[in-house]
Amino acid sequence: MTTKLAVSLPDELAEQARQAVREGRAASVSAYIADAMAQSARTRSISRLVADMRAEDGRPSEEDYAWARRALGVE
Fold it and tell me: Does 8 have pLDDT greater than 90?
């Protein structure tokens, strides 16, 4: 199911959406905006998860960060 909405966007954001459609990166302006909203929701969800983990276990230590850098190969 979909719901049709009318929204106002700053000109530069509207142009970004139209450009994405012209370049084939989005099927439509609506699809572009829906994807952006979904990405934003995922980011908020991950941010909440990290905040919950920090509240439960505290901030990562320098050892934790060093391990992560090694694991990701970014040392």
Answer: yes
